[in-house]
Amino acid sequence: MKKWKIDALIPLLAILTVIPLSCNQSELDTKLIVSKYGEGVVKILLIDPELEKNKSSSGYLGRGSGFFVTKDGYIFTNRHVVEMCVYGYINYDFKSAYGKKKRKISTYSKDIINSKSFLKAYRTGYTRPVIQVYHGKNENEYKLYIAEVVAIGVGAFDGAILKIVSDIEGNPVKTKFTSLPIGNSDKLNQGEQLCVFGYPQQYKGNKDIMLLDMSTLSTGIMSGLDYVFNKDYGYIKTDAEIHGGNSGGPVFNENNKVTGIATAKGTETSIGLVGGINGMYFVSANNLKLQKKLTALGLKRPERSFSINTTSGDKLPIKTAYEINKIVNPSKAYTSKSKTSNLTNYKKAKIWFSNISPKKNNNLLPDKSKRHTSFRFSRAKGGMIWVFVDNYPSPLNTSQVKVYIEKLVNGKYMKVKNLVYNTASLKSDHTYFSFTFYEPTTFRFTAYSKENKYISSSTFFTVYK
Fold first, then answer.
1. 282 neighbors 305 (Cβ within 8 angstroms)
2. What domains are defined for the chain?
3. Which of 312, 304, 234, 225 is nearest to 271 (CA)?
4. In 3-state terms, what secondary structure has residue 240?
5. pLDDT tens digits along 143-178
6. Which region among 273-282, 299-308, 389-398 has the lowest average model confidence (pLDDT)?
């Protein structure tokens, strides 16, 4: 009997020695996170390219954090970090609760303009996301890239997806970026260790100062869940420090995978709020190819998803400061510049299409023999044409042209995308851009000036070769 008792203890002791080893495999390893994934955590600077043209650093309007989820340059971040790229922004005066006039830059909204406290608009425009990627430990060891918003959350989840499109000079990018591993936010447990990684704003200043502000890592635990600030999808609470600039950055779990996106800091308790990364499953839903790619990399459909929707990153139309002031205070709205713009005549304007760009036509606009209303294309490769917005002999007299693209589906035109293109100058009588397509249908292009004045509309149709 005594021998049997001793033998029975042997497997029990073996089990007790195995359990601690299993726990150690799930410990948060901050050194590993920094060394292996540090170059995949990025700073996102919001730049108005029009202001930047006039004076260097004058176009800087804000910043946040983000992180690569694919090696070819897709980035996860918060919606509120990049919404000025899609919805635009407004620089305006308003009257505070104490009756004092104050200046503010906010995401463009009709609610701001219609508010009783609104006084005057100075400028409206759009920002462009400039991505700062560090590749060393020193403050100057980084590269800058241009990105575009490809998807932005609408509704319960504060998420957005960007894609690197070029380097800061506009050149194509062949770099393979450091992608971060994607975890499962629905499997996160209260009390689990977390690590927040990003670029909290430690200084105030212009773009040059912001570029020197380096990454910060903070740790804490998963403190619990919150369904007050977001009753549909909820937030993960953490005592790890989250500050302005951290928004959009990754939050790692004990498996050293990204389980959430740093989103906000509580005003009463200073507890940080983190959006569970699974919500990005629905943010990516407008691009099924991308969603499938992210799913293969570990992104899971969230268990709770009452109203997570998404839309493309196309710029939405906004009014100019002149138009806003004309509505709010008509007697003070007119200026000589805006009067000139208001008198622009688009009666002879037209939109036409060609498969030849001016660059391949000796820097000349294609003549009428090279302009077409139908195009044949390869089923495998798709097709590309050039779209010209032409007001010859009069100038377009606008700094931007807004283009609404639709396609014919079952006898009705459905939205494809909205685009905004800069003109060479106010005196230019035309602007042009490329358009790529992959299906046989009829496309309709409608153009408006930046001041929302109708320019022209035209169609073309496509067929397989």
1. yes
2. 30-311 (2.40.10.120), 343-464 (2.60.40.1930)
3. 225
4. coil
5. 999 999 999 988 778 999 999 999 998 899 989 999
6. 299-308
